[in-house]
């Protein structure tokens, strides 16, 4: 049986490992190049992982090679491999995720003004017999000889020149790709505006980052308004000056247009964004501009960590504590952690910036593995307001705002300023119920109540897409005494409209659904006239509202009381982010209405000393073996009945675990039923990572083998953040 050349292909299918295909060409495409292969009855686009030999008779052949150059360069490929291993996710799916949509569909990975192929100086003197045994290469050489001005890839394709042959000529140093001759651009001044004069703390931080040689992870721990962005900008300048690129990850670009604006205003180099609001073509163009080095500053959301970079010099993770950096479905990676891995691979510095660092990051800094840079006062000379905790036990569903809060709002707008009322719940009221029999409107598909949206008089579930009209009578007893409980943004908007003379501007997902609506609302706020803003956490991130002098915060208790061990951390982060919106110019006031005003964690957060709160929480975590001291992975399962989900996990939990790995559960998930499916989970805990990863491998192998696994959907989440 003759052995034949094969390629190992990583395919976007939910199966571990690569797939072997026959390959007849003379030079195998490099790792990271795309190929088309038959898979079952379909044709898939996969990525070359490696090549080898096989005598297995039934292998199918590669249909087409799509790239001359790998679309995923070696460094990025290594990042994908590491992520696939760490998150126990199939490599083919990770690589597929790393590609822009159009490349997944097989489009050409060339920038639109493509580079042209030319013969090199040496290539022009090659004699035909030097290529006597490689007819395709000789053909390619001949075609290039006939076109001294070079040929673009589409022209070469039209002339039926083999891309492998071109690559072979290039590897021999006989052909190359280069741009059209263009006049060298005159050197431009890098700065479009001068830097702000940095204060002492900022200077120290900037100097530390500028002096970093190779991989250094920094935690830039600076309260809101302390000028972290200015530190980024000044630390970036020498990197850009040296011709390198800077990658900036931000939580949500659509919500923070001002951040992008500040980078564009400061520098003359091309700045591009990478986020879900782009069309497929824009996304590909931006991706190519990053890969080819034309784009110098890249600002993107979490998936931007997979952007190829021609000449990377610095990675910045802004708002590095933000939960949106963790992908919560499919390939469940944390872009914050990948940013550090990538910087390490590239031997460049990485900055994690936050006013409220994740406890994991803080722990790394406190144990000396990250270098901590602190900005402890506000950059402009305004004072940071203290958070006043108000006892809200007397607030009623009809009037959720306490008299103190209402009076403060009146005073604020009377003084010509703006105020913000924060409540992290959209809709009018989170529940409606019957006063006579106690019936409550519940989503039939979820363990959750319907939210009443008064604007279209509907009941909506915020966990699935169920909705219906508000009943005029109780479906159980027929009573007309239907009443709401609790408050959402719509209710506050309506109450404030009645109580105050100034415009009330609501910002939540409902009010900003239309394209351009958010920008319009933000522009109204920026205009600076007295107004009250009512909003959810959409307002908490990164906005600057110069006229904001008062913040009133409602309903923040749940997080501090939550059974989820991350609850208090996340609540404190949100509280301080929201509070940070005020007082950017002139002292502001922050009122926190709470039904548990004496709760110690809430008190500690309100005092503004996030570091002290973190110390308290870290001590608890250490005792419990929770992150960052212990490591977790969660096996989740969804099925048509709770019994099926539990049964599957129960069978898995009978496995013997390696030394040092503890299995907890299975238990029903905190929201047992969601969108019509029942959910259960199994928790793996270990003090060391290696045995945990070993245990996950064994668990996944078992899960794939168990017949019960085919009747449910399951996945593993490494370092889960919601559980
Ligand atoms: P952060 O990102 O830490 O919340 P920003 O970078 O947005 O803070 O800065 C807050 C405000 O302070 C911005 O309006 C910024 O222009 C201003 N600022 C930052 N650094 C300085 C400085 N050195 N001197 C004067 N103003 C500054
Ligand atoms: Zn009733
Ligand atoms: Zn629902």
From TrEMBL:
Zn(2+) 2 binds at residues 443, 446, 461, 464. Keywords: ATP-binding, DNA replication, DNA-binding, Helicase, Hydrolase, Isomerase, Metal-binding, Nucleotide-binding, Primosome, Zinc. Residues 209-375 form the Helicase ATP-binding domain. Initiates the restart of stalled replication forks, which reloads the replicative helicase on sites other than the origin of replication. Recognizes and binds to abandoned replication forks and remodels them to uncover a helicase loading site. Promotes assembly of the primosome at these replication forks. The gene is priA. Binds 2 zinc ions per subunit. The keyword Amino-acid biosynthesis does not apply. InterPro entries: DEAD/DEAH_box_helicase_dom (IPR011545), Helicase_ATP-bd (IPR014001), Helicase_C-like (IPR001650), P-loop_NTPase (IPR027417), PriA (IPR005259), PriA_3primeBD (IPR041222), PriA_3primeBD_sf (IPR042115), PriA_C (IPR041236). It comes from Alcanivorax hongdengensis A-11-3. Its EC number is 5.6.2.4. The lineage of its organism: Bacteria, Pseudomonadati, Pseudomonadota, Gammaproteobacteria, Oceanospirillales. GO terms for molecular function: 3'-5' DNA helicase activity; ATP binding; ATP hydrolysis activity; DNA binding; zinc ion binding. Belongs to the helicase family. PriA subfamily. SUPFAM superfamilies: P-loop containing nucleoside triphosphate hydrolases. It comes from the Bacteria. This is Replication restart protein PriA. Its cofactor is Zn(2+). The keyword S-adenosyl-L-methionine does not apply. SMART domains: DEXDc, HELICc. One of its GO terms (cellular component) is primosome complex. PANTHER family: PRIMOSOMAL PROTEIN N. One of its GO terms (biological process) is DNA replication, synthesis of primer. Zn(2+) 1 binds at residues 434, 437, 474, 477. Component of the replication restart primosome. It catalyses: Couples ATP hydrolysis with the unwinding of duplex DNA by translocating in the 3'-5' direction; ATP + H2O = ADP + phosphate + H(+). Signal peptide: none annotated.
